[in-house]
C-alpha cells in the first residue's frame, strides 16, 4: 500500500529565511507527487506536482520541489519565506488511477518575525 | 466560475441523526471525491466517483453513502451520525482520474456529532 511520511509536525522559520519541508513516500511504481497548502479555515490549494520528466519542479508562490527516486523523497523548498506562507502543508502521492490520493499528516509552518 | 462549493460550512448533529453534505462543481469535471480531515491524520478518502452513475469506496467508507446522478453534484450522506464522524469534510474534483490530476478542493464542512 502506498504511504506518505512528513517527519516534521511543526516547523518554525524566521521571515526571509529559507525553508525545506520533508516528504518521503512509499509506492511500488512511478508515483504522481503533489504538494498542497491549506491556510486556516480554508480548503487545499495545489502548490506543485510531479508526474515525470525534470525532477526539479516549480510551483506557485516561489515554491519548488525535487523528486529523488533513490531516496523516495519529494522535499518542498522556498529560498525566502514570507509571513503569508504560514499554513499547513501536505504532501500527497498517487498512482494515476481513480482511487484518489494518499496524504501525509501535514507540516504546520510557523513564521516568526 | 465558483469552482467547488460545499454546504453547509458548519453543522452540529446528535448521535443517530442523518444528514447530507452537499458538493457541487461547475468545471465539468468527471472525477469527484470526498475526504475527511482529522487532527494529525491528514486527509483520508471516503468515496469517489469517476462519472455520473459510478461511485466507489475509498479508504474509510463505513457510515457514509454517496450517489452521482449528475456531473455537477456529489452529495455525501451520513446514515446515522456517530461521534467518530466529527471531522472536517472536503469535496474535491478533477478533470482526469483522481490520483493523476490536480484536485480542486472545496472550502470544507466542519461537522460535530454530539
Overview of this protein structure:
The complex is a heterodimer of chains A (113) and B (114). In chain A, strands 2, 5, 6, 10, 11 and 12 form a six-stranded mixed sheet that branches. Chain A is built from no helices and twelve strands. Chain A is mainly β and 113 residues long. Chain A has strands spanning 3-5, 10-14, 19-21, 24-26, 32-38, 44-50, 56-58, 64-68, 73-78, 87-94, 102-103, 107-112. Chain B has 114 residues and is an all-beta fold. In chain B, 0% of the residues lie in helices and 51% in strands. Chain B is built from no helices and eleven strands. In chain B, the strands form two sheets. In chain B, strands 2, 4, 5, 6, 9, 10 and 11 form a seven-stranded mixed sheet that branches. A four-stranded antiparallel sheet of chain B has the order 1-3-8-7, with no helix packed on it. Chain B starts with a strand and ends with a strand. The model of chain B has no long low-confidence stretch (mean pLDDT 94).
How would you sum up this structure in a few lines?
The complex is a heterodimer of chains A (113) and B (114). Chain A is mainly β and 113 residues long.
Radius of gyration of chain B: 13 Å
Question: Percentage of helical residues of chain B?
Answer: under 10%
Order of helices and strands of chain A: EEEEEEEEEEEE
- The coarse overall form of chain B would be globular
Sheet having the most strands of chain B: 7 strands, mixed
End-to-end separation of chain B in angstroms reads 36 Å
Identify low-pLDDT runs of chain A: none
Features:
heterodimer, A: 113 residues, mainly beta, six-stranded mixed sheet, four-stranded antiparallel sheet, 12 strands, globular, B: 114 residues, seven-stranded mixed sheet, 11 strands, 0% helix
